[in-house]
Design goal:
Elements: H1 51-86
Amino acid sequence: MIRRNGDPRDDNRVVADMKDIDRPPVLFPRLGARPKKEESNAEETPVEYAPSERRAMIGGAVTAGLLIVLVFAAVFALFILLILKMRP
């Protein structure tokens, strides 16, 4: 916290407790110790979706992909059109 006179002082508040966070190695990250996995008592079961839900998710993903391709194609077409217009 900065005081009115511009003097920053520590007011002993804890913003985020960082004592339990392990720091990864900087020079050789693959040679460091592997993070420990916390074991939970809850069983992890895969989520089952109905066929109509699965089709809706696949359709949404395909539609999003096609929209991205359409935007790239439109930008490319405008680029080609501008190049052709600039030719003498």
